[in-house]
Design a protein that fits this description.
By secondary structure, this protein is mainly beta. It has a single domain, classed as TolB, C-terminal domain (Neuraminidase, 6 Propeller), CATH 2.120.10. The protein is built from one helix and 28 strands. The chain has one helix at about 1-15, and strands at about 35-40, 45-55, 55-60, 65-75, 80-90, 95-100, 105-110, 115-125, 125-135, 140-145, 150, 160-170, 170-180, 185-190, 195, 205-215, 215-225, 230-235, 240, 250-255, 260-270, 275-280, 280-285, 295-300, 305-310, 315-325, 325-330, 335-345. The strands form seven sheets. A four-stranded antiparallel sheet has the order 3-2-1-28, with no helix packed on it. Strands 4-5-6-7 form a four-stranded antiparallel sheet, with no helix packed on it. A four-stranded antiparallel sheet has the order 8-9-10-11, with no helix packed on it. The protein is globular. This is Beta-propeller repeat-containing protein. Keywords: Signal. It comes from Flexibacter flexilis DSM 6793.
């Protein structure tokens, strides 16, 4: 069952190039912008958790074990990052441990007894929330950690997983999926632990990111149409397909700026994946489709649109940030590297 779930998660990560990001406000700054990005870069044998600050890389792990970062959130002078580490359990093999970094100092959210994943971090009123999942011996339980204390939301009778968390006032919103007894994945939101299905369950669907604006609840993700995945935007549960379903596509992140809705993701051209973002439903291609590429995260700051993810150089994935469509490479292309989340301050 672990292998079955990790194949699902790997498909989402490798096709959709990971998961998540963080604070999405469009605050003005008076002096220069600082671009923070997290993800990973391989050292040739292991994945190293990375934080890039204006392109300058900081290793968050030493390369002994595989570690990847999925999400970043800035709160005051503190930088929060979440992800995972793979460790030997001393018995049957490798375990995944959910991990949180605060200002570069790592803290485990789980032990190595059962696989666990940390997908997104969100800070509200000094409280630190991390969304993810953990194996219970039979299935994955969707859960979140508040200040390091785990809270299970699903009962573990079927697989479920949280990809995203957003806190608004005293309300905790979570997004992801929960399987039906027949194995079909239903895209769902949870508000204070109460589930709200956004798909019917006839085809697999997964919610990847959630965003709250006033009384409106936005989520993005993807849904199968029996043959292909369609990039989807849900607003208050109402479905909008961003792609036509002829080729695979996924939506990975969402930002609101005034009345404008920005969504990052990718769409296949039939042979290669193209990194894209959609502004109010209109697609903007960031790559030409010669090599595989994907957009995992975006941020709009002072009128500039920042998108991050990766583009293949033909053999390796290069971590990249696009600012207003102009690409900057964060890695040299010698080993695989991907940006999973970014924020601009």
């Amino acid at each position: 069952m672990k292998k079955h779930f990790i194949k699902i998660l790997a498909a989402a990560v490798l096709l959709a190039f990971g998961a998540t990001s963080c604070s999405k406000d469009d605050e003005e700054t008076s002096i220069g912008s600082v671009v923070y990005a997290v993800g990973y870069e391989s050292n040739g044998t292991k994945d190293v958790a990375k934080l890039w600050t204006n392109g300058r890389a900081t290793n968050l792990s030493n390369g002994t074990n595989n570690q990847q970062t999925n999400s970043i959130f800035l709160s005051g002078n503190d930088t929060y990052v979440c992800g995972y580490e793979t460790v030997s359990d001393g018995n049957v093999g490798i375990e995944y441990v959910a991990r949180l970094w605060k200002n570069g100092v790592a803290k485990n959210l789980s032990d190595s007894s059962n696989w666990a994943f940390a997908q997104q971090v969100f800070v509200s009123d000094g409280d630190v929330y991390v969304a993810g999942s953990q194996f219970n011996g039979a299935h994955y339980v969707a859960k979140y950690w508040k200040n390091g204390v785990a809270k299970n939301i699903t009962d573990g009778s079927t697989n479920a997983h949280f990809n995203s968390v957003f806190v608004s006032g005293s309300d905790v919103y979570l997004a992801g999926y929960e399987e039906k007894t027949n194995g079909k994945k239903v895209a769902k939101l949870w508000k204070n632990g109460v589930a709200w299905a956004m798909s019917g369950g006839s085809n697999d669907a997964i919610a990847v990111k959630i965003l709250i604006s006033g009384s409106d609840v936005y989520a993005v993700g993807y849904e199968f149409n029996s043959e292909k995945t369609v990039a989807v935007l849900w607003k208050n549960g109402l479905y909008t397909g961003l792609t036509d379903g002829y080729n695979d596509a996924q939506a990975r992140d969402i930002v609101l700026v005034g009345s404008d809705v920005y969504v990052a993701g990718y769409e296949s051209n039939g042979s290669k994946t193209v990194a894209k973002y959609w502004k109010n439903g209109v697609a903007v291609s960031l790559t030409n489709g010669t090599n595989n590429a994907g957009a995992n995260t975006l941020y709009v700051h002072e009128g500039n649109v920042y998108v991050a993810g990766f583009e293949s150089n033909g053999s390796k994935n290069v971590a990249k940030i696009w600012k207003n469509g102009v690409a900057t490479a964060l890695s040299d292309g010698q080993n695989n590297a991907v940006v999973r989340s970014l924020v601009v301050k």
